[in-house]
Design brief:
Layout (H helix, E strand, L loop, with lengths): L3 H28 L9 H9 L3 E4 L11 E5 L7 H13 L3 E4 L1 H4 L8 E5 L6 H12 L3 E4 L9 H4 L1 E7 L4 E2 L2 E2 L17 E2 L2 E5 L4 E6 L2 E9 L2 E6 L10 H8 L5 E6 L2 E6 L15 H7 L3 H20 L3 E6 L10 H7 L1 H13 L3 E6 L24 H18 L7 E2 L8 H10 L5 E2 L16 E3 L2 E6 L4 E2 L5 H14 L2 E5 L14 H18 L4 E2 L2 H13 L1 E7 L2 E10 L2 E7 L3 E3 L7 E6 L5 E6 L4 E7 L5
Parallel strand pairs: 2-3, 2-4, 4-5, 5-13, 15-16, 15-23, 15-24, 16-17, 18-19, 19-21, 22-23
Antiparallel strand pairs: 1-26, 6-10, 7-9, 8-11, 11-12, 12-13, 14-27, 20-21, 25-26, 26-31, 27-30, 28-31, 29-30
Helix pairs in contact: 2-16, 3-7, 7-14, 9-15, 10-12, 12-13
Length: about 625
């Protein structure tokens, strides 16, 4: 048996060995964090992309009717409604045909056929054909008010004093039918020039604006009319309202939705300040810690909790420096950002999130000759080569820590980008697939996007954001509601410095956290089909969604659904307008979510086609 001194020596030796091993592991994790992560988010994304595509024809039935939408060609380049309607129908996978007056005269009436008009300049002969189509069982959606008193009965109008000399603002729901627009505040951005009308007693009013009837439905003969008494549907941010009011017109309405939810954290990871600014004393006093400690131990810890509670996947996009010029090489960037990259990026990857690129610095990739809002105070780049150099340094920075990873998503600073910048990105980022900017906007130089492949850059996919902020103001709430309304989609972004900027609306993080969480929960409640995606995963799903097709057939007691190359799961919204109800039973192939209390609206997730959904006649059914 060893003496006490020998035992002490062995204990000290063992303790020393363990201490050395601990130091080695810590140092290794700092210098090579990727070695301690089993799979990076890109690998997880690749597995999600391999989901099978759905293909199967709707059940053939000689008595079945196929829904169709007809848009009356207006031959006017400045009619914004026409463009918005066409684009919305394409996203929704609703079959449509653009027709002229000759085809109008021979339209076949059906409760599943709907004619859409997008101009106030309808001739008497056109309206005569339209009235006959509706009277005999077709449907009409008036997307821009027309003033023709001899057709007031068709329009569901009792009296009409003509166009108002002043505009009306906002919308008020008078007959609830949609869970998202009921909670939308009276947004000043919604501006309409309307007619001074009194609607017929039999018409059903769904919306008004400052006391003016804005949208109603009216039965005319055997058909139904939806009348929008305004001009706002020419706005890109009105597409959701168009689709959600269109659903009130045909007997049944079946539309494809994406169900995609993407949440971005811009400017993260980034070099965070060591001290609070002079205007940030409230945070210093409340939390009694440095900005770096607060962001790591409070804010980021809360953001991870929110992701877990609300079922989110973040796409973080990082910045190397906030300096205007390229003053640091790739090696220097690695050293300066060692703490942020070794902790935040590793943590993001570990939780299944994605790390994308925001920029070498926060200067948009523009030259001095390219248009930009000068009040933003940005410094133009000298040339494309300098842009490319900065991007190369950031790629080097990421690969220093995560050699098997690469940037697949890029978010332009302030959502500003031009062709020169895209060319610089392509020259340095061979794996880049997604550019996420904004869907709509007024800032000069903004990179405004539609969802889909970039025609000029076929390897790049445009994945815009619709809303932003921990404090979701009136304008951003409208953007979020519109995206839900016509795409069944959330694409929202926040910044760490939202907490200390004017975007916070004067709230502290504890208040912003509650507001942000409530906002996300509200969206998920309204659209339970929403599922979390990183930007890379969303690009894969939406690419298939845009390429695929959906087929619908109606019989008296069923809806048959087929598809060609649609992603799994396929998501739909169904609205039944004549007192019918969906006789749904949950199965491994179909999940049905009833929406609202009246039994008329449903959201579905479908994992196998074809599917036949039984329909029963309710007490109010025709």
């Amino acid at each position: 048996m060893d003496s006490p001194n020998k035992q002490l020596e062995k204990l000290l030796l063992l303790t020393g060995v363990l201490l050395i091993l601990t130091i080695i592991v810590i140092q290794f994790s700092r210098n090579h964090p990727q070695r301690l992560i089993p799979k990076l988010s890109e690998d997880v994304a690749a597995e999600h992309q391999k989901s099978s595509l759905l293909t199967g024809s709707a059940t053939a039935n000689s008595r079945a009717e196929i829904p169709h939408y007809y848009i009356l060609d207006i031959h006017e380049a400045n009619e914004g409604q026409f463009h918005q309607f066409v684009k919305t129908l394409e996203y929704a996978k609703l079959p449509y045909t653009i027709i002229g007056e000759r085809e109008l005269a021979s339209l076949k009436p059906s409760p599943y056929h709907t004619l859409i008009t997008a101009t106030e300049k309808l001739s008497v002969s056109q309206l005569t054909y339209i009235a006959s189509f509706v009277k005999n069982g077709g449907n009409l959606y008036v997307g821009k008010r027309f003033n023709e008193n001899q057709f007031n009965a068709l329009a569901g109008i009792k009296s009409n004093e003509g166009f108002s000399q002043s505009s009306v603002h906002g919308i008020d729901i008078t007959k609830p039918w949609n869970t998202i627009y009921e909670k939308l505040p009276a947004v000043e951005a919604i501006v309409n020039n309307s007619m001074k009308v009194t609607i017929a007693d039999e018409s059903e009013l769904y919306m008004e604006s400052e006391g003016t009837p804005l949208f109603w439905t009216n039965s005319y003969g055997d058909g139904r009319v939806g009348f929008f008494n305004g001009t706002w549907l020419s706005s890109k941010s009105s597409r959701g309202l168009f689709l959600q009011t269109l659903e009130l017109v045909p007997q049944r309405f079946v539309v494809a939705l994406t169900g995609v939810e993407v949440v971005y954290i811009d400017d993260f990871p980034a070099p965070f300040p060591e001290k609070w600014g002079a205007d940030q004393t409230a945070y210093q006093e409340y939390y009694a810690m440095s900005p770096q400690s607060f962001l790591q131990n409070v804010w980021w810890a809360d953001m991870k909790d929110i992701a877990s509670e609300e079922d989110l996947l973040y796409t973080t996009v990082m910045i190397g420096t906030y300096e205007d010029k390229i003053n640091a090489s790739g090696k220097e960037l690695v050293e300066k950002n060692r703490k942020e990259l070794s902790y935040y990026a590793r943590d993001a990857y570990h939780h299944g999130h994605e790390v994308g690129l925001h920029g070498y610095n926060h200067q948009p990739l523009l030259l001095g000759s390219e248009a930009i809002d000068g009040t933003l105070g940005y410094t133009p780049w000298e040339n494309k080569e300098t842009m490319a150099e900065g991007i190369k340094y950031m790629q080097h920075l990421l690969k220093e820590y995560y050699p098997t990873s690469s940037f697949k998503t890029y978010v332009p600073p302030s959502n500003i980008l031009d062709e020169t910048g895209i060319s610089a990105l392509e020259s340095q980022l061979p794996d880049l697939r997604t550019i996420s900017s904004v869907y709509d906007g007024q800032v000069a130089g903004s990179y405004i996007q539609e969802i889909g492949m970039d025609n000029r850059h076929p390897q790049l996919f445009n994945l815009p954001r619709f809303s932003s902020g921990f404090h979701v103001d009136e304008s951003n709430r409208l953007g979020a509601v519109d995206a839900l309304g016509h795409l069944g989609m959330v694409s929202h972004f926040v910044h760490p410095d939202d907490l200390i900027s004017s975007r916070s609306n004067g709230f502290m993080w504890e208040q912003l956290k509650v507001e942000f969480t409530s906002f996300l929960a509200e969206l998920k409640t309204a659209y339970p089909i929403l599922s979390p995606y990183t930007a890379t995963q969303a690009t894969a799903y939406l690419g298939s969604f845009l390429e695929g097709t959906v087929s619908i057939q109606h019989t008296e007691d069923s809806i048959s659904i087929g598809a060609t190359d649609m992603p799994t799961p396929m998501r739909l919204l169904i609205r039944l307008n004549d007192g019918e109800q969906l006789e749904h039973t949950q199965s491994s192939d179909v999940t049905v979510y009833p929406i609202g209390d009246d039994g008329s609206t449903y959201q579905l997730e479908i994992r196998k086609v074809p599917v036949v959904l039984p329909i029963s006649k309710g007490v109010d059914a025709k």
